[in-house]
Known about the structure:
This protein is mainly alpha-helical. Helix content is about 85%, strand content about 0%.
Amino acid sequence: MIKKLTLLFFLCFQLYVVFPQDRDTLFVQYEKDYKTTKTDTARLQSIIKLGTYLITRDFKQAEQYFNEGIAIIENSETDLENYNAEINVHLGVINRRKASYDKALAYYLKALKYFEKVKDTSKIGDVYHNMGLVFRYQRLHKKAITNYKKAIALKKKVKDTFGIGAGYNMLGVSYRQNNQLDSALISYEKAEYLFRAINNKEAVHGVYGNLGALYGFQRKFDISLPLKFKNLAYYKSIGKQLSICVEYFNISNDYKRMKNYELSYVYADSSLQVALKQDFKERISKAYLRKSFLSGKLGNYKNAYNFYRKFNRYSDSIFNIENAKKLQELELQYKFDKEKSALELQNKAEASKKQLYLVLLILASISIILIGFLLRSNYLQKIRLTQMEFEQEQEKLNKTLLTKENEIKQLIADNTMRLKFKEELIQSIKKELVQEESIQTKNKLNSLITQLQLQITTEKRRDGLQQKINEINENFDTTLKEKFPELTKGEREVCALLRLDLSIKEIMVVRNVTIDSVKSMRRRIRKKMNIPVEFTIEDYIKKLD
């Protein structure tokens, strides 16, 4: 009686559910954009919108759109690599649902390579999430959990609430299938909280479906069955075929556990019909296995055998060593390509650094050489200018000194001649005055007067000697006063004459003193100036500034 009532409830429920329309307004808009766009970029955008919308409703048609997008990219001269990567992700989803897991993983890895190149954290998270699904369907739960956790961590970085919730939802599924039920429940609760926070009704129903599966596994049918029927109604209303297929099968699970094999068979068959229509190979395989088991329980062993054979055919195409090898090869190839790319980038970076360092070294060397050359040129130019100025000043000074020296020597010679003349004159006067008569004496005196007048002229020339000495030695006299204040004026004058290379006799004549007086003055000068014994007084005086 209970079985009949349950079957009646099922039939009523099937009649009650509102099925979605073939074309809603959103699809119509996307299709209109697709037909009216002309440029490759705009057309690809429309194709991606259409394919994304259809992937949960009619993924065969979605695949056709995505393949058209790939053809546009291959024939376009524009760089459309970003669209190619996005379409690869969707093609990976389609092939995963077709249980072509090796192809799905290959598409995901192509997309991952591009997203890692452009450092798109959110998209990388999406790829890891989808790769987790591939490993989950291959019953590689540890790998699946690792990929989901990577996806969640990346989605947290970009603060993508939906992405985080989706990661926790699928993480819960892998925990459940790995018999980590407490971890599964915690993950579902986190996912539900996040989806409610962003008011995403469809995502919340996705959590309900997984919670229903968990409660059914725990045999809490009073909780699991209402959740599953509620989800089935919702998915039918939005036309989400894969979720409809899964919910049918999950309801079948509960009735199987309740040993209501008739209803379990009905729902398993409903799941199979949707899976066959959409070519969900993994779901087809499960549905045939379920129908084989239920047929045996209901006593129809022939059907049980035939269903099991079909299950084997689908199962072998999905779960076999060859597929596992392909998945492993794809993973290893991706890791190898990634490491190779990283190594190439590192080598290029090192080479660029070396080239940069070399260029900087060359530029620095050239700069140093140029600066050195300019400094040397400037230095040599200054030396040449200084040398020229010095030579000019030296030449001018030499000319002045030579002129002054000639004048002084001429004066000294005149004075020498004057002295000699005086001596001769005295002798002549003595001789003439003694020998001559008075008249003659008078005449001689007149002659003497004339000669004396000539001598006066000579004396005037002698007076100019001191003036010449003062002109030449003006600065020198100042130096002597500063360095040797104890020297007398006469001693400074003698120093000036010594500086002009006058001999003792010449100084004697100029100063009108005796030789002994000049020698005595030289000794006093040497003592007062504290001249070392290795220097002559003349050399020492000449070295004074």
